[in-house]
Amino acid sequence: MPLAVIDAAASTELGPIQLVFVVLGFAVVLTYIARRLRIADPILLLVGGIALSQLPDLPEIVLAPDIVFLLFLPPILFGAAYFTPIRDFKANLRPILLLAIGLVLVTTFAVGVVAQQLTGMPVAAAFALGAIVAP
Q1: SS3 (DSSP) at 2
Q2: Following CA atoms 102, 128, 134, 107 in sequence, which dihedral angle do they give, to the nearest 10 degrees?
Q3: Which parts of the chain fold into alpha helices (H)?
Q4: CA distance 16 to 13
Q5: Whole-angstrom Cα distance, residue 131 to residue 33?
Q6: Is 21 in contact with 80 (CB distance < 8 Å)?
């Protein structure tokens, strides 16, 4: 399975390496602007990503899901965990646990019931689907 597939036929001006640097530079600029405007970085990065995706001449980038889980997700989770203040975490422990456990159970049940009613699949299979989807 390839690490990343870049459709170079759509653009002859940017190669794969140049495209990666353009996207990274775009993310750095958007992060700087978000911090100057005092808004959350992910909000402006999302809006910027949507705007960047609308440009017609950029090549399509397709990432394998295994690579995303292996290379991108661990540093993001580590950064979020490392910079979470323990005092804030302890102060919000009850809502965190209610959402992490209670909401997952409620979602599992809701998806299971809806899947069973709409498709007629066995109850065990419907709740297994709910358990897969809920987290």
Answers
A1: coil
A2: -50
A3: 16-37, 41-53, 65-67, 73-82, 86-91, 93-97, 104-119, 123-133
A4: 10
A5: 40
A6: no
Diameter over CA atoms, the chain: 54
The reported pLDDT for the residue numbered 24 is: 87
pTM value is: 0.48
Residue 53: HSE in the Cβ half-sphere, 13 Å Cα cutoff: 8
Torsion angle of C-alpha atoms 73, 2, 30, 78, degrees rounded to 10: 10
**DSSP percent split of the chain into helix, strand, coil, nearest 5:** 75, 5, 20
**What's the mean pLDDT in 38-57?**
88
124 close to 117: Cβ distance less than 8 angstroms: no
Contact present, 31 and 21 (Cβ < 8 Å): no
